[in-house]
Amino acid sequence: MNVSVIVAVSRNQVIGKNNQLIWKLSADLKRFKALTTGHTIIMGRKTFDSIGKPLPNRKSIVITRQKYYEIEGCVVVNSLDEALEKSVDQEEVFIIGGGSIYQEALAKANKIYYTKVHKDFEGDTFFPVLDVKEWESVKRQDCLPDEKNEYPYSFIDYKRKK
């Protein structure tokens, strides 16, 4: 099974504020949908709360420390390892946040779908700086702002170095 992280990160490593995304990039949302549809997505409970419902055409696994917590339409587990165990039959699973889940998942991931937003933002949730000794860029697309995307951004695919 391939464990992939999918994330949008500002220039200063911010990924969110007050349990919400800070920017709206239509192209990033389309990319997220295209990559994750038909796959399992794994997220923390706060990330699920910010989305508000299971995303269509995806199996949603939500990680929470709360015992006996239930969410209709989702599989609820108490650890990332348990989430991955429930996904062993999948070719690729996507870790979609939040901050502490990303921190733990990076050690287990072999691919990162990274959207770099070329602007600094204030926030309270951050993504770790990638270690260039562990990750290499294998694909990059740089994009300028337009009517649906307020900021310049880059789609960068990383894979773990062997």
Can you give keywords for this protein?
162 residues, alpha/beta, Dihydrofolate Reductase, subunit A, eight-stranded mixed sheet, two-stranded antiparallel sheet, 4 helices
Rg from alpha-carbon coordinates: 15 Å
Low-confidence stretches: none
- Widest beta sheet: strand line-up: 5-4-3-6-1-7-10-9
Q: Approximately how much beta-strand content do the residues carry?
A: 25-35%
Summarize the structure.
With 162 residues, the protein is of the alpha/beta class.
Describe it.
- The protein has 162 residues and is an alpha/beta fold.
- It has a single domain (2-160), classed as 3-Layer(aba) Sandwich (Dihydrofolate Reductase, subunit A), CATH 3.40.430.
- It is 19% helix and 34% strand.
- The strands form 2 sheets. An 8-stranded mixed β-sheet has the order 5-4-3-6-1-7-10-9. A two-stranded antiparallel sheet has the order 2-8.
- Helix 2 (45-51) links the parallel strand 3 (40-44) and strand 4.
- The longest helix is centred in the N-terminal third of the chain and has 11 residues, at 26-36.
- The chain is globular and about 45 Å long.
- The mean pLDDT is 97.
